[in-house]
Every structure is written in structure tokens, then in C-alpha cells.
């Protein structure tokens, strides 16, 4: 095993893991802000209960998103120092901007929101959750700008050292790639939050409210949550599909190899069919022994919006890439065993092919589950089927998996490049992943880092899921005295933040909430 | 002042913000065990920083992010060179961040005790690690012409870097104790005074020793003046604590850490990471920086972002300015 493999595994594990928390944080924090706004406007107790309940789950998840995000910013320097040197003039700027104008806002205002119940005027407190949640969205924009630049470098010139130099930050921030990736990712985040609401709310409805009257306040909490989640899930899916189609069309131009690999399309076809399912070994770029069920002409539609245009296959693209970017890695000892070896321009076909299909498949499942949940709960109904709750709960996994496979597809699909050449951009701005890794780091350190981070992440995953499940199961009374219940005698004197009415503060109004 | 020098100063300010703000966070975490007798007292301690620790931590993220943007070669060399210390810092920051949020989420003695341990360990490691790494970048590391470290983690452990680690940790302990005295009332406040009275001089000593060492090795006349002022402020902080003037003691410690950062970065300039192998391999402010265009872009962002950060973080401290005592801790409400 080479340090390159270790560093790639670490990046893959830490990033996929981080991106389990991120979409839930983004989607849920905005939805919590919406719930609190509804409470602020209407004063209805069920909106307060929703804000507190979903807010608590959001916070349990937020903490993990924050701490795993720190690793991201550091590991470019630790494991990928050559990459950092090569792209630093361009890539560091959006990261620094993210910290300065988004992450500071997120962290500070979230702290104000958590501890500000009862301390801050209601309107200011509401503004805090909006500031924190919108900052997470802004944060995503900067990070995706950085990532999109790796997929499609723009706004740069080559300097005398052969490194890209930023010439237009505007081009970087309005890269066509990020303009498509941002709505796609944000919609994917809301899909996660939508399914999360649907799954947990369905469980509560099925467990407690099959026979309660429709105006039972607790039932209303879960019914409203489910309806909100269902609509968010369905609308997000529409947005995911539209933005995904735009993204795919761009990618056929910008990274033709990635899209050919997504289809395991070996030979150039005109018109090209879309493979729905394949049997056999898709890993071979010559496609021997693969039987595939295809929809004729559909790939041409996806790529170019008509039924006839040619789509280039892997074999032709390999020739084009070889001609343009060379046949062999430079004979540089720092490349380790890759030095001087021929470059394999084909990404791992099974991963791209199946990653692409699993992304779409789980996305469809998530949206379908939301649509079904909306139908069976129409006009205040609660379905009696015993399958309702378990299926809805299981459905929470679908959008997470769709997001994960989407990222695995897009990042594995750009291999062997870490910075993919832009076919219409400045010549010479690209970098092979093999060149990007830190030359000064020992294999032992890298392995230790991989093992330590993976172990800590695994333990924390268990803890987070345990806490989420515990709080999800407890419902409203786990986070506050339900606002529709009379306070117990001993509670009347010091009703904390828990505090239901959002005004009271225990112990002389110093701390309305405490860790 | 040219742009790279300006950004060198900005990065120094970001580290200062981090050491000043999260310095007391770390102190609170390290003292969580020794300074408390029961869980309510521990909750008093944790909640002195509850609303603010996460915002404080962003200072280091922005410091490192700004280093990536403004000095990519410094970022690459330092983070890959100080690989293991930084890994331990990361693991510690992960653990303690989650621990703050999770410790009160289950009403069980064992649960809280375990997370409190994570908070304590996770608060010791980062000041040790950052003290080592920042002192290392000031006094130099064995880097080759490409900026890669020659040797392994043992090459990072020298008298000066270890002193830096001890100094930053001691400062954080002192700063944390003064902060707790400033922010609490009752037994915890009393004990915080006890910590400063008994260990104050001992905790101040390594900080002053670091100032002397850096000054002797690579200081200039003006850093000597700053070092003198910083040392005086440190001594003054202990005196103010004796007089029960906690606010003034806290402000004096702010002057001390400002002085330390100014001496460290002031004596580092115009290098950002000297090479102990050969002076010719040293990374300099001019050589390691990004292009003028990139620096201009992030200057504009910082010009709007930084004052806003100071305003809203300052406001947060204003909102949560009241002292906390065991009487203020609300009852636990968990499922």
C-alpha cells in the first residue's frame, strides 16, 4: 500500500462521513427556522413544539457536522501538500471566504440561538436561527465553488512556475459547474431533511395517534411535521432532477470521460442508449461480456437534448486524453511506484456506473416514499397499516444513500485527475491525484491518521445515532414540557428554557438553557 | 505595507484571537475536573463558555484557511510537516466539541463522567499541540527546498518547541481560571481564585521563559520592548487577582497574549517558516504568498467580514455577560 492509497481512503472516509451530517444540518436548520417563524407568526403551540423537537435533533447532528468539518480544512495541507501548493492561489480563497463570512456566522449565531431562548427578544432570537441556517447554505456555496473548480478550472492563468494563478474570482464563483452543483446539492440536502421529518413523524403517528382525535395537539405536531417533510421531499426531488440534468449536460462537455464512465459506454454511439441495468463485468473498458438493458436514444437526450447526437465512448476518449495529456506519468521519484508508468484515464467503471444508478435509484425511492406518505396522510388521516411506520423510518436512509453515491460517483469519476483539465480552458491547468499527495509524510503517520480518524468517527457515529434515536423516540416531552399541558406544581416556580413558553428563565434569568 | 505583509499580520491577529478566546475555553476544560466537586459545579464551568466556545473555535479554522489562501506554501509545509501534532489536535477538537454538546443529553452519571473526561483530555491536547506547532514555525523546522519536513515527529520535539507547548498550555490554564473567576459566583469563583493564587506564578513562568527564549534567539529591539510590556502585564494580572479585580486581571492577560503573539510573529518576519537545514530553504512572506490578485480579493472579504465578526461575537459576550452560579443552573430535562 502506498501513501497515495492511504490518503485517498482517508479523504473518502472523512468526506463521505462529513457529508452525512452536512445535508441534514443544512436542510433541517432551515426547516427549523421556518417552524419557528410559523410559531412567531401564529403563536400556535404545535409550532413551538416542532421548533424545539426538530431543533434538538438538528443540534445533535450539527455538533458532528462542525467537528468533522475541521478535518476537511486541515487534511489538504496534511495529506495533499503538493495539491495545496499547486492550487493554493485559487483554492484557498473560497475556503478562507467560507470561514470569514459563513462559518463564523453559523457558529456564533447557533450558540446565541441555543442559549438565547428566553434571554433574547423573540424577534432577535428568530433572526439568530435564520442567520445560522442561511449561513450553512452560504457555506455550501463557497465549498462547492472550490470543488467545482477542481472539476472544471476557470478564471485562471498559468504563472511562470506552471501553477494556476487566479485571474477572476467572479469566474470562480460563477463557474457553470457550481451554478449547477449548488442547486443540486442544496436540493439533495432538503430531500434528506424532508425524509427525516417524514420518517420520524410517521413513527409517532403510527405509535400514538391511530385513534386520537384530529385536533389532539401532539397528533397535530407530527401530522404537520410529516406533511411539511413530505412536500419538502417531493419538491426537492423535482429540483434535484432538473439541476441534475443540467449538471449532466455540462459534464458531457466538461468531463466527457466521467459521463462515459457513468454509463460504462465503451464505444462511441450515435444515437446513444441509456443503460438502465447491466449484467456482467462492467469494469472492462472494452465492454466484453456485458449485457445491458438500454433505453435507445435516451443518453443522447440526456447529453444533448436530442435523439440522435453522438456520445463519445470510453475507448475513443482514452485516445483523445492520451493525445492531449500524455501517455505516461512524469518520471519523478516522488510519484512512488507510479513514476513513469502509463496513465490509466479510465475511472473505476463499476463504481461510476453503479454509483450513478444507485444515486438516481435511492433519490427516486426517497421521493416516492414522500409522495406516498403525503397521499396516505391526506386531510388529517393516519394510515392503519402496520407497514407505514417501519417503511417511513427505513425511508430516511434513502436520500442519505443517494447523496453519498452521488459524491462517490462524482469524485471517483474524475480520477486519475485531482484537478480535471478544462477542455476549453487554459492549457496546462490539471493535476493527477498521484502528484497531489504529501511527499514528506511517512506511510506510518498516514496509516495511523487513517485508522485513528476512522475509529473515532465510528464510535461517534454510534453515539450520534443512539442520541438521535433516543430523542426522536421521546417526542415533544423529551425536549420540553408540552405547551398544551399544565405545568406540574414544582415546575411552576422555575420553568427553564426547556421552557415552554420561551419567556421564563430559571434561577433569576441568568441562564435560560444550560448544557 | 505590501499585501503579503498585511496578510502576515492578519494571520497573526487570527491566531491571537484564537489563543485569547479559545485559550480560556481550554483552561475551563482542563480545570473542569480539579476545580469542581459535583455535577452542578461542572455545569457552571461548562456553561461559562457554553454559548461561545464554538464561535471561538472558528478563529483557528479561519487562521488556517487564511493561511491556505494567502500563503499556500506555508500552509502545505506546516501542516504536512507537523503531521502528528496536528492530527492529535484534530482528534481532540472533534472529541471536545461533541462532548460539550452531548454531555447533558442523557441523565446518567456515567455518561456525563465519560464526556467530562473527553472535555478534559480534549482541552489539554490542543494548547500543547498548537504551542508546539506555532513555536516550531517561528523558530524553524528542518524543511527541504520543496518545503517538506526532513525527518519525523521527533525532529519537532526540541527545547524551544516543547517550551512553547508548555507555555501556551500554562497560559490557557491561567487564563481559564481568571475567566471562571470573572464569570461565576460562589464556590467555583472562590476556587478559581485559589488556583490563581497558588499556581499563578508557576503558570506565568513558562510564558515568560518563552518570551525570553524567542527574544534572545531572533528578537529585535522593538520585540524586546513588547516582550517587556507583556511580561509586566502578566505579573500585573496576578496582582489584580489578589485585589479581586477580575476584569482587570482578564484584560491584563489579554495584553500578555497579545504581546506573546506580537513577539512570536514579529521575530518571525520576514520569514513564515525558517528552515533549520539551510537558510536558503526558508519560506518567506514574499516567497510563500499568493498572487497580488488573490490577496486583494481576500482583503476585500476580510475588510467586510472581520469587523462584522468582532461586532456580533462581542454582542454575544454582552448577551451572556452575567455571572453564573450553582443557583442559576436549570434542572436537567432529557428523555
Describe this structure in words.
- The complex is a heterodimer of chains A (515) and B (335).
- With 515 residues, chain A is mainly alpha-helical.
- Chain A is built from 17 helices and 6 strands.
- Chain A has one domain (3-482, 490-509).
- In chain A, α1 runs parallel beside α15, α7 (217-254) runs antiparallel to α11 (349-376) and α8 (256-263) crosses α11 (349-376).
- Residues 492-508 of chain A have low confidence and may be disordered.
- Chain B is built from 12 helices and 2 strands, in the order ααααααααααββαα.
- With 335 residues, chain B is an all-alpha fold.
- Chain B has a single domain (3-325), classed as Formate dehydrogenase/DMSO reductase fold (Up-down Bundle).
- The chains are: A mainly alpha (515), B mainly alpha (335).
Order of helices and strands of chain B: HHHHHHHHHHEEHH
Rounded to an integer, what's the Rg of chain B over CA atoms? Answer: 20 Å
Strand content of chain B: under 5%
Q: Give the class of chain B from helix and strand content and strand pairing.
A: mainly alpha
DSSP strand count of chain B = 2
N- and C-termini, Cα separation of chain B: 58 Å
Structural class of chain A: mainly alpha
Poorly predicted runs of 5 or more residues of chain A: 492-508
- Judging by the overall fold, what is the CATH architecture of chain B? Up-down Bundle
* Mean pLDDT score of chain B: 92
The tally of domains of chain A stands at 1
Query: What is the topology, as strand order, of the major beta sheet of chain A?
Result: 1-2
The best one-word shape of chain A is globular
Amino acid at each position: 500500500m502506498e501513501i497515495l492509497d492511504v490518503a485517498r481512503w482517508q479523504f473518502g472516509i472523512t468526506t463521505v462521513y462529513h457529508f452525512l451530517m452536512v445535508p441534514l444540518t443544512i436542510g433541517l436548520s432551515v426547516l427549523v427556522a421556518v417552524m419557528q417563524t410559523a410559531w412567531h407568526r401564529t403563536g400556535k403551540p404545535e409550532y413551538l413544539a416542532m421548533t424545539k423537537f426538530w431543533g434538538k435533533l438538528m443540534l445533535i447532528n450539527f455538533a458532528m457536522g462542525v467537528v468533522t468539518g475541521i478535518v476537511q480544512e486541515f487534511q489538504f495541507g496534511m495529506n495533499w501538500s503538493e495539491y495545496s501548493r499547486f492550487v493554493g492561489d485559487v483554492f484557498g480563497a473560497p475556503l478562507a471566504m467560507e470561514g470569514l463570512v459563513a462559518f463564523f456566522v453559523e457558529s456564533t449565531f447557533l450558540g446565541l440561538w441555543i442559549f438565547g431562548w428566553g434571554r433574547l427578544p423573540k424577534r432577535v432570537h428568530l433572526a439568530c436561527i435564520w442567520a445560522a441556517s442561511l449561513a450553512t447554505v452560504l457555506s455550501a456555496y463557497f465549498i462547492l465553488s472550490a470543488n467545482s473548480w477542481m472539476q472544471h478550472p476557470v478564471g485562471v492563468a498559468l504563472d511562470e512556475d506552471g501553477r494556476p494563478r487566479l485571474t477572476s474570482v467572479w469566474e470562480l464563483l460563477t463557474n457553470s459547474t457550481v451554478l449547477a452543483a449548488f442547486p443540486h446539492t442544496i436540493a439533495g440536502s432538503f430531500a434528506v431533511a424532508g425524509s427525516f421529518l417524514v420518517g420520524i413523524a410517521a413513527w409517532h403517528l403510527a405509535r400514538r395517534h391511530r385513534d386520537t382525535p384530529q385536533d389532539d395537539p401532539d397528533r397535530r405536531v407530527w401530522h404537520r411535521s410529516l406533511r411539511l417533510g413530505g412536500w419538502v421531499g417531493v419538491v426537492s426531488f423535482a429540483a434535484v432532477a432538473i439541476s441534475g440534468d443540467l449538471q449532466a449536460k455540462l459534464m458531457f462537455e466538461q468531463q466527457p470521460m466521467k459521463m462515459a464512465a457513468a454509463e460504462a459506454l465503451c464505444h462511441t454511439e450515435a444515437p446513444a442508449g441509456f443503460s438502465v441495468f447491466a449484467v456482467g463485468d462492467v469494469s472492462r473498458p472494452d465492454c466484453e461480456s456485458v449485457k445491458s438493458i438500454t433505453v435507445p436514444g435516451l443518453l443522447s437526450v440526456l447529453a444533448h437534448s436530442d435523439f440522435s447526437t453522438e456520445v463519445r465512448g470510453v475507448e475513443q476518449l482514452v485516445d483523445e486524453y492520451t493525445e492531449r495529456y500524455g501517455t505516461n506519468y512524469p518520471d519523478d521519484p516522488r510519484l512512488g511506484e507510479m513514476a513513469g508508468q502509463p496513465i490509466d484515464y479510465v475511472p473505476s467503471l463499476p463504481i461510476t456506473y453503479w454509483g450513478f444508478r444507485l444515486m438516481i435509484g435511492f433519490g427516486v425511492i426517497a421521493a416516492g416514499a414522500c409522495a406516498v406518505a403525503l397521499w396516505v396522510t391526506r386531510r388529517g388521516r393516519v394510515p392503519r397499516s402496520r407497514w407505514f411506520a417501519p417503511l417511513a423510518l427505513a425511508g430516511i436512509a434513502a436520500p442519505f444513500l443517494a447523496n453519498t453515491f452521488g459524491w462517490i460517483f462524482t469524485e471517483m469519476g474524475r480520477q486519475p485527475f485531482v484537478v480535471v483539465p478544462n477542455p476549453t480552458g487554459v492549457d496546462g491547468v490539471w493535476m493527477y491525484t498521484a502528484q497531489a499527495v504529501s511527499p514528506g509524510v511517512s506511510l506510518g503517520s498516514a496509516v495511523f491518521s487513517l485508522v485513528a480518524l476512522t475509529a473515532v468517527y465510528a464510535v461517534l457515529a454510534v453515539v450520534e445515532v443512539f442520541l438521535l434515536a433516543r430523542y426522536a423516540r421521546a417526542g415533544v416531552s423529551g425536549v420540553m414540557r408540552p405547551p398544551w399541558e399544565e405545568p406540574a406544581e414544582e415546575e411552576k416556580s422555575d420553568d427553564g428554557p426547556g421552557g415552554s413558553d420561551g419567556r421564563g428563565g430559571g434561577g433569576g434569568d441568568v441562564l435560560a438553557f444550560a448544557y | 505595507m505590501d499585501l503579503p505583509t498585511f496578510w502576515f499580520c492578519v494571520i497573526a491577529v487570527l491566531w491571537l484571537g484564537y489563543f485569547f478566546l479559545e485559550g480560556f475555553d481550554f483552561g475551563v476544560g482542563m480545570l473542569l475536573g480539579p476545580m469542581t466537586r459535583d455535577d452542578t459545579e461542572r455545569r457552571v464551568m461548562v456553561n461559562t463558555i457554553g454559548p461561545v466556545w464554538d464561535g471561538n473555535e472558528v478563529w483557528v479554522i479561519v487562521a488556517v484557511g487564511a493561511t491556505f489562501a494567502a500563503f499556500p506554501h506555508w500552509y502545505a509545509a506546516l501542516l504536512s510537516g507537523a503531521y502528528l501534532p496536528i492530527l492529535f489536535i484534530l482528534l481532540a477538537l472533534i472529541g471536545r466539541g461533541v462532548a460539550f454538546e452531548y454531555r447533558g443529553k442523557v441523565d446518567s452519571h456515567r455518561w456525563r463522567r465519560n464526556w467530562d473526561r473527553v472535555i478534559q483530555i480534549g482541552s489539554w491536547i490542543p494548547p500543547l499541540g498548537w504551542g508546539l506547532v506555532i513555536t516550531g514555525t517561528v523558530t524553524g523546522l528542518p524543511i527541504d527546498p520543496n518545503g517538506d519536513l526532513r525527518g519525523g515527529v521527533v525532529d519537532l520535539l526540541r527545547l524551544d518547541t516543547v517550551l512553547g507547548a508548555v507555555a501556551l498550555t500554562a497560559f490557557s490554564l491561567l487564563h481559564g481560571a481568571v475567566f471562571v473567576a470573572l464569570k461565576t459566583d460562589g464556590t467555583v469563583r472562590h476556587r478559581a481564585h485559589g488556583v490563581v493564587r497558588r499556581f499563578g506564578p508557576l503558570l506565568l513562568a513558562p510564558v515568560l521563559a518563552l518570551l525570553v527564549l524567542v527574544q534572545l534567539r531572533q528578537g529585535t529591539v522593538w520585540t524586546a520592548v513588547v516582550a517587556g510590556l507583556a511580561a509586566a502585564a502578566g505579573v500585573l494580572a496576578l496582582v489584580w487577582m489578589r485585589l479581586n479585580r477580575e476584569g482587570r486581571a482578564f484584560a491584563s492577560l489579554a495584553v500578555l497574549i497579545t504581546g506573546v503573539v506580537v513577539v512570536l510573529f514579529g521575530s518571525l518576519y520576514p520569514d513564515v517558516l525558517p528552515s533549520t537545514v539551510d537558510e536558503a530553504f526558508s519560506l518567506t512572506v514574499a516567497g510563500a504568498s499568493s498572487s497580488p490578485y488573490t490577496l486583494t480579493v481576500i482583503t476585500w472579504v476580510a475588510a467586510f467580514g472581520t469587523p462584522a465578526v468582532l461586532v456580533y461575537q462581542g454582542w454575544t459576550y454582552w448577551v451572556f455577560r452575567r455571572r453564573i452560579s450553582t443557583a442559576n443552573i436549570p434542572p436537567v430535562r432529557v428523555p
